[in-house]
Amino acid sequence: MAISSSNTALPFKPHQQQLFRSNNQFSAPLIGQKTKPITSLDRQKLATRSHTIPRVLSKPTDSVPFSLADFQTEAKDNEQKTHEPKSPPLTDTWREIHGESDWVGLLDPMDALLRSELLRYGEMAQACYDAFDFDPFSKYCGSCKYTRRQDFFTRLGMADSGYDVSRYLYATSNINLPNFFKKSRWPKVWSTNANWIGYVAVSNDERSKVLGRRDIVIAWRGTVTRLEWIADLMDYLRPISSDKIPCPDPTVKVESGFLDLYTDKKENCNFCKYSAREQILTEVSRLIEMYPNEELSITITGHSLGSALALLSGYDIVETGINVLGDSRAIPVCVFSFSGPRVGNVRFKERVERLGLKVLRVVNVHDIVPRSPGFIFNESMPQMLMKAAEGLPWSYSHVGVELALDHKNSPFLKSDGDLVCAHNLEAHLHLLDGYHGKGHRFVLASGRDPALVNKGCDFLKDHYMVPPHWRQDENKGMVRSADGRWTQPDRPKLDEHPNCMLRRLRQLGLGQ
Amino acid sequence: MAISSSNTALPFKPHQQQLFRSNNQFSAPLIGQKTKPITSLDRQKLATRSHTIPRVLSKPTDSVPFSLADFQTEAKDNEQKTHEPKSPPLTDTWREIHGESDWVGLLDPMDALLRSELLRYGEMAQACYDAFDFDPFSKYCGSCKYTRRQDFFTRLGMADSGYDVSRYLYATSNINLPNFFKKSRWPKVWSTNANWIGYVAVSNDERSKVLGRRDIVIAWRGTVTRLEWIADLMDYLRPISSDKIPCPDPTVKVESGFLDLYTDKKENCNFCKYSAREQILTEVSRLIEMYPNEELSITITGHSLGSALALLSGYDIVETGINVLGDSRAIPVCVFSFSGPRVGNVRFKERVERLGLKVLRVVNVHDIVPRSPGFIFNESMPQMLMKAAEGLPWSYSHVGVELALDHKNSPFLKSDGDLVCAHNLEAHLHLLDGYHGKGHRFVLASGRDPALVNKGCDFLKDHYMVPPHWRQDENKGMVRSADGRWTQPDRPKLDEHPNCMLRRLRQLGLGQ
C-alpha cells in the first residue's frame, strides 16, 4: 500500500491495518536506530518548509482486533517502499530544536526532527525509572540498579545512545516528601539517607558530530508510579534566594518542597553530603572545562517531580552563570520536561525568561500533575486577578512553551485509563510519536513500539495482548548460587563523589 | 560448634545462629546434590534403628534478625565438621519408603530418608506450578512454558533430577471448575479447551540404580494460587463406576467435580480429545512395556486439587490392574500427596486400602483444603454416626496415612500467614524439611533453601528480606527483537498425543 503524502484523509480501512504507518519523512536518528545520510537544508528552510504529513489513519476503534505484530510488518514494508525527502541534519538545526526561537513554527504542525529529539530526551528521562531499584525488599532499594561506568545504557537496551554517564545524582530523603523516596527494609542498607535521583551524561565524539555540538544532558528521576507526592507538597512558595541561590529578586519564589529536594543535604552521608544542587553545578562546570574549544549545549530533562528538578536546575545554571564561558558566550540551556507540575510564581517565570532558559513542556491534557500545585491561582487566570494574587504564596505559574497532547487521540489506548496511566512517561512518548499538530490525526511517526506504554501501567487496549506492567526483573533479582541458594547478589560499590568536589565548590563560591 | 546427637534440647542461642543446622545423618541424595557413599543397612534396621536427631534449636522469635545468608555458611561449616553415620541406601529400603508397611515407624520420629524422598517428589509436584503459564495476557496461557523433550527439568533448575518427562497431561477446561482453569485472552490461542495439568516422567538408568528400581512418576498440577475452586466443588459424591472406571461396587463414590476433571474430554480438541484418565492409563502401560525385565515402581504426586487427581489416578491404576505384570506380580503404586482435599466416601477409602494403593498425605494443620469437602460429615466423626451417614452424599473420608505439619512450628514463617500461605506447596516442603516428629523441635534437615517459601506467597518473616512472590519471568516473557520491538516469542509446537493411543486404548478395553 502506498502512503498518502497529501493532507487528504484516506478512508479508514481497519482490515488493511492502515492504523500503523511509519513516517520517515523527517525522521532523525533515534536511539537504537542507524543514522542515515541526510540532505543539507538550512534552518530557515526547516522552520518554513511545508509539512506533508501522511494522513493514513486513525480513528479509535474497539471492534477490530489488529495486533502489534502486524504493525511490525507494516512498518518494515513501508520502509522499503517510501523514498520521502529526509530531514535537514541536526548540525544545521540544533539551536532551533534546542529552543533558540522558542519553537515558533515547530509545534503546529509538529516538526518531525523536534519530535524525534523530544523522544530521544524523553527516553533518557525514562531511563531513570527503568534503572531505579524501588523494591523495598532489595538491599539496594533507592539506588540505581546498574553501574554508571560499565553498563547503565547497555543494560537499558540503549547501548547506541551515544552518551556516557559522567555522574550519578543523589538527594537526601530526609525531607518532607515521604512518597517520593523509596526506603529499603534491610537493616544494613547501602544508604539510609540517600536516593538515586538521576544522572549527568555527555555525548561522545561520534554522537556529537551528528548532534552538531557536545551535548551535556541532565536527567532527573520522578516518582515511580503513585501520585501521592502531590498531596505531600506544602503548597508553599519560598523565595529562591533563601537557599543561597543567587537570585537578586526576593519575590522570585518556588514551591518549598522542590527547593528542599534540590538544596538539602546530609553531612554524614557519603551520597548526599552534597546537595543535588552542588552535584549538578560542580559536574556541569567540570564538563564545560573538559571541552574548552567545542560548541556545547546543556539539555535537561525529567518527568513528573523530575520535571520540577529539571526546571530548578536549569534556572540555577543560568542564574549562577556557570554556562557563561570566558569570552562571555553563553552555552544554550534548554529544559525538555514531561508532565511537570508548576514550580514557582509568576516572578520565577519572568526571571527564567529573562535569563534565556528555554523550556518546552510536554503534557497530557488529562494528567492532573501539570495542574498542581495551584489549582486556584495560576497563569490561566485573568491577568488582573493574577496580578492581585501575585503576592500570595499559592499563585503558581507554568514556565515556557507547552506542547499539549491528548491521550484520547491515540487509538491504542483505553479511553478510561486512570490518573496514573494519564501521567505515565511512556504514554507521553507514545502520544508524542503520534502527534502531528492540533486537529491532525494520530499517526505513529517513528515506529516506536506502542508496547512500551504498558511497561509500567495498564493503558493499552486489552486486545493488543500486551501484559500490563510487564517490565520486571527475573525473580525480582534473586539468583541461584552454585550451592543452590537463592540470594540477592551483591552489586558493585556505588560511586561516591569525585575528589575535586570541595575545590570546585569553592571555585563556584559554594564552599563552606 | 558441635551438633548435639542426643535428644536433649540445647539451650536456644540465637546469636550463635544455631537456628539452621544441616542434618546429614540420614540424608538421601536430593535433586541437585551429589550422592555420597552409603553404608549397607538392611531395611529391618531402617525400621527399628534409633533416631538420633540433632536438637539444635528452635523457637520462634521475632527479635533476632538472623539472615538466610548466615544459614548458608553454617550449613557448609556443619558439613565439614560432622561425620554422622549415613542413611542406608534406597536400593535396600525403597519399598519401605514407598509405603509397603504403611510407613509404620517412619513418621514419628520422622525418618530422614523418607523425608528427603518426600521432598524430592514434592519438588516434582512443585515443578507443575513453576512451569505453568498462567498469565491471561500470554497466548500460551494454560500451557506448560517449557518443552517436554528439551528443557522441562533444565529450565526449572532441576537438570540433575535423573528423570525424563515422557508425556505431558492435559485436561479439558469445559467442566464445572471455573477457578481451576486458566484461559488466555488471545483470540487465537494454543487451545480454547485444554489446560496443561501435569506430566509423566521416568527415572533414567543412572538414577534408577540409586533408587533401586525404575520409577514412573505422575505429577499433577493443582490450582495456581487462589482457593476459590473449593467453593466450586459441588459437594456431590458420584459412583466412581458411573464413569466407566471398573469398580465392582456402586457405593464407592467420589466427588463429582474431581471425577469430571479426570474423565472428561473434548472430541475436537487436539490436546484433550483423550481424558486425563486415558492419557495416564495408556502412558503407564506403555512405560511398563518398555522396561519388561526391570523392577518398577509407580509414584504419584500432586498438591491441592492435584492431590485429588493423584489419588484418583492411583486408585484407577490399581483398580484397572494395569500395574499387574504377566507373572501376576504387582508393581507397587504409591501416592505422596500434599495438602489434598477429601476425594471420596468411606467405601472409596476402603476400596483403596483393599487394592493395596499406598497413600501418604502431607498436610499443614492450618490449611483449610484438607478439611474440604465434607466439613460436617467426615472420618473424624464417631464411627457409629459415620456409619449412619455413609449413604449421604456428603460423607467424605480421607484415605491413607497422614503426616500433619504445623506452620506455627517454623521460626522462619509469619504466624499470621493467610489461608493461601497455609496452603502453599513450597511452605509444606519447608515444614517437612524441618519436621522430626511430634513435639520435636523444628530443625532444617537438608539445607533446602527457606527462601523458596516466598516464591509464590508472602509467608517468610520480613526480616529475612526475601521478596514476597519473587518467582517471575523477566518482562513477563516479552523479549526485544532485533528491530527493537517487544513481543511474546513463539514457542515450539506443543506435543499432542502419541500415535499409539487408539491401539493402547483398545488394548485396555477403553476403545470407543
CATH class of the largest domain in chain A: Alpha Beta
N-end to C-end Cα span of chain A: 67 Å
Strand and helix order of chain A? HHHHHEEHEHEEHHEHEEHEHEEHHEEH
The helix fraction of chain A, in percent, is 25-40%
**What about the largest sheet of chain A?**
7 strands, mixed
**CATH topology title of the largest domain in chain A:** Rossmann fold
- Per CATH, the superfamily of the largest domain in chain A is Alpha/Beta hydrolase fold, catalytic domain
Quaternary structure type? homodimer
Tell me the strand percentage band of chain A.
Answer: 5-15%
* Rg over C-alpha atoms of chain A, rounded to the nearest angstrom: 23 Å
Mean pLDDT of chain A: 82
Number of structural units classed as domains of chain A: 2
Kindly name the structural category of chain A: alpha/beta
Helix count of chain A equals 15
Query: What order do the strands of the largest sheet of chain A run in, or round the barrel if closed?
Result: 1-2-3-6-7-9-11
Biggest protein-protein contact in the assembly: A-B, 41 and 41 residues
Please describe the structure with a list of short key phrases separated by commas or semicolons:
homodimer; 512 residues; alpha/beta; Rossmann fold; 2 domains; 7-stranded mixed beta sheet; two-stranded antiparallel ribbon; 13 strands; 28% helix; 13% strand; disordered N terminus; plastid (chains A, B); lipid metabolism (chains A, B); galactolipase activity (chains A, B); chloroplast (chains A, B)
